[in-house]
Amino acid sequence: MNFNKICVIGLGYIGLPTASTFAAHGVNVLGVDVNPAIIDTLNRGEIHIHEPGLRDAVSKAIQSGNFKAALKPEEADAFIIAVPTPFHENKLGEYEGKTYKLADMSAVIAATESILPVLKKGNLVVLESTSPPRTTIELVAPILERSGLKAGTDFYLCYSPERVLPGQIMRELIENARVIGGVTPESAQAGADMYAIFVKGQIIQTDASTAEMVKLMENTYRDVNIAIANEFSRLADKFGVDVWEAISIANLHPRVKILSPGPGVGGHCISVDPWFFVETAPEITPLIYNSRQVNDSQPHFVLDMVQKALGSLQGKKIVALGLAYKPDVDDLRESPAVEVIHLLQKHGAQVQAWEPFKPNAKLPGIVISTSLKDALVDADAILLLVRHTEFLELDPAQVSQWTKARIAIDTINGWNTSAWQNAGFQLVRLGVGK
Ligand code: SAJ
User: Fold this and answer.
1) 45 pLDDT exceeds 90?
2) CA distance to 281, 336, 354, 361, 386, per residue, from 358 (Å)
3) Are residues 152 and 49 in the same domain?
4) Most buried one in 41, 264, 300, 339, CB count within 10 A?
5) What is the average pLDDT across 141-155?
6) What is the CATH number of the domain that holds 303?
7) Could you give the number of structural domains in the chain?
8) Candidates 131, 175, 269, 297: which one to mutate for ligand 1, based on the most atoms within 8 Å of Cβ?
């Protein structure tokens, strides 16, 4: 199959890098988005999202004449759907008294419908958005078949998940292994032929539902493993044990690899994707459901810890170090640090946050300091929430000169007890009951 023209629908964190990478490899690409402001920005050679290397890739693509952006798809050889699949804002599922979040598939439906008027015999359509199992064959195929063409016979249809790490997208798109799940083997082959235009990693062909499950299994596996680490931190706290010491000893066993406990699980992938399994099969996913509950409730465990350390939180001034969802990134989506801060505020604390990767972030109800030093001046306690390298390298002797606080609370095992004690602090650590 020849891919002279590809239409990429959804120009966000995945669609735009994908579109510009195809364009850089000589393909004529039409990027489609429903937001007119995004289309204007891109057609001027600017970008609307931050990702290293992306600005350069888009401006080169525009200059080469291989890329343009529009509000609607046009006839093409292939269509890639890369739109968001967030949660429904005001709708929850329920099974035997337990509630769970539901995926909002409206963007996938609208994007698929937008292809209908231009779909032709012999085309390839690929869904990349993370989706509940069987979405490709039960949701996307029936919509496309309204054209009178049959999926897998008249046109090729695939699911191919993105598995790239934000911050490394431009490199990982090319180098990572790529899974292509077709509704027929011929569809998978057509998908593999298209991604082979730029993918250097292994291309694995399978069926569409397997590819959907692979994506969800990867992130669910990680979520469940973090949940058990978080539960171990609660047990260690109860039994007077240091969970970090216990984990490091257990991990000497050749078949044990316990992950790290912390204030919870954030980001737009691991804290989201397991719900796609739960919503489609609540009766057989108690482990996945409970792991999500454990990780979502970990900020409450941090709240208890802070309350134990400080007594009543009423009027106490706490400096929170870090707002990002994980170390050394500026992404605040679904961040457990933000959740912890809201809980502390609800219990009467005054919280000042410091986030070196996003000092100008605006979050409703959260005061962000202009510098760490300013935040610390009249603090009662310092709370370490994110493992940013900069925080691990803080000198406690220096910090003690900036603040009257004498309690430091470490939720990520970032600080050394004796160093902080020597600087005059009481160091309280998550998962340490001694
Ligand atoms: N976390 C812990 N303990 C750990 C490891 C992580 O509490 O031992 C927390 C982090 O602090 C963070 C959250 O989990 O809040 C998720 O961080 P992460 O680094 O585990 O993963 P993400 O969400 O940044 O990226 C994941 C990756 N998936 C896997 O590692 C299986 C990435 O490869 C995927 O491309 C990405 O999801 C995605 O887009 O789905």
Assistant:
1) no
2) 38, 16, 9, 5, 13
3) yes
4) 264
5) 98
6) 3.40.50.720
7) 2
8) 269
Question: What rounded mean pLDDT belongs to the chain?
Answer: 96
Question: Could you tell me if 150 and 68 lie in one domain?
Answer: yes
Domain identity same for 344 and 244:
yes
Ligand 1 within 6 A of 259 CB? yes
Closest-lying ligand 1 atom to the alpha carbon of residue 215: 40
From the alpha carbon of 264, which atom of ligand 1 is closest?
7
- Average pLDDT on 118-135 reads 97
**Ligand 1 pocket member 270 (CB < 6 A):** yes
Q: Per the residue annotation, which of 7, 101, 158, 215 is the catalytic one?
A: 215
Which are the contacts of 249, defined by CB distance < 8 A and separation ≥ 6? none
- 137 DSSP assignment: I
pLDDT score, position 370: 86
CB distance 164 to ligand 1 below 6 Å: yes
Distance CA 16, CA 11 (A): 5
- State if residue 165 touches ligand 1 by the CB under 6 angstroms criterion: yes
Selection from 301, 297, 307, 263 nearest residue 407 by Cα? 307
Closest CA to 267 of 179, 350, 339: 339
Bridge pairing between strands 407-410 and 426-429: parallel
Q: What is the pLDDT of residues 397-407, one digit of tens each?
A: 999 999 999 99
Q: 420 with 310, same domain?
A: yes
pLDDT band at 109 (very low <50, low <70, confident <90, very high): very high
- pLDDT given for residue 329 in this prediction: 84
Residues 148 and 240 in one domain: no
- Residues contacting 407, CB < 8 A, separation 6+: 309, 310, 380, 381, 382, 425, 426, 428
Clarify whether residues 178 and 268 are in a common domain: no
Judge whether residue 312 has pLDDT over 90.
yes
Share of the chain above pLDDT 90, in %: 89
pLDDT at res. 44:
87
**In-domain check, residue 186:** yes
Domain carrying residue 244: 226-434
- 207: in domain: no
The mean pLDDT value for 186-208 works out to 98
pTM score above 0.90: yes
> What sign does the CA torsion over 174, 178, 180, 186 have?
positive
CA of 187 to the centre of ligand 1 (A): 31
- In degrees, rounded to 5, the angle at the alpha carbon of residue 360 between the alpha carbons of residues 17 and 170 is 15
Specify whether the CB–CB gap between 14 and 38 falls below 8 A: no
